[in-house]
Amino acid sequence: MCFTMRTSAERLRIPSENVRLFTAARREATALLRLASLLAYDLETQVPDGIRAGDDVAVLVHGSLATGGAWRPLRRKLEARGASVVTFTYGPSSGIREVASAIASVLEGIPMGARVHLVGHSLGGLAVRWYVQELPHDPRVVRTISVAAPFAGARGAWFFPGPAGRDMQRGSPALERLAETAGFAGVPHLSIFGTADTAVATSTTFPVGDRLVVADAGHNTLLFDDAVVNRVVTEISTRS
To answer: 3-class SS at 87?
Structure first.
């Protein structure tokens, strides 16, 4: 009979790993509850008055099964730094193309000469890239940022209704098209992912731009994570 002895470090590592996973799961559950509490807010398109040429405008695009209210914590930080913030809400079955078209409609209300930053969570992150890669070039868009966007497909995509579920399936035509044309738009991009995101495939990547990987953050935790909020605010408030 053979016995395997564990070192003290190995004995400590196992419970430490369990604690880390439990903490990440608890944070994600808290984020889901917080997201649910914001669903009733910002259902209508909100474009601030007084936007002028040269102003930084953040257009925040929520994920499927959410609403514009999901962005309220980030919105407060952006407005405190002097950025104008635009939010809108789309239907839960909307696919990438439909959300990109909604972005185009929203931008019609923003003056020419403004500096537009498109920020999207989950499916919204796919839609902001579809907008700059597949729709007619809009010189106002100076940056795109995706948060937990399933560029390589979403686990459980079948759960989502209509085009949303179809587009987020691994290897869908929409995802393949985004990968093929990623480098053609010429718009800087930042991809933000969490290591504890169980909704987004671990192989997710995007061919262009920078990456921010947040340790132990889940799919919805990223919406409220201080490191994410601060990085997005910095990206938008820093001129390039």
So the answer is: strand
Longest distance between any two alpha carbons in the chain, whole Å: 79
Distance CA 223, CA 68 (A): 12
- The SS3 call for residue 86 is strand
Query: Degrees (nearest 5) of the Cα angle 53, 43, 65?
Result: 115
Residue pLDDT, tens place only, 174-225: 999 999 999 999 999 999 999 999 999 766 889 999 999 999 999 999 999 9
Structure tokens at 217: 């953050």
Which DSSP string corresponds to 142-210? EEEEEES--TT-BTTGGGS-HHHHHHTSTT-HHHHHHHHTTTTS---EEEEEETT-SSB-TT---SSSE
Query: Rounded to whole angstroms, how far apart are CA atoms 214 and 194?
Result: 5
What pLDDT digit, counting tens, does each position of 88-145 carry?
999 999 999 999 999 999 999 999 999 999 999 999 999 999 999 999 999 999 999 9
Residues sharing a CB contact under 8 Å with residue 94, sequence separation 6 or more, in sequence order: 64, 102, 123, 162, 163, 164
Cross-strand pairs, 60: 87, 119
C-alpha triplet 205, 138, 127: angle, nearest 5°: 35
Can you read off the two tokens belonging to residue 136?
Answer: 């007619």
| Reported pTM | 0.92
Q: What is the Rg, in whole angstroms, of the alpha carbon atoms belonging to the chain?
A: 19
Burial class from Cβ neighbours inside 10 Å (0-12, 13-18, 19+) for residue 60 reads buried
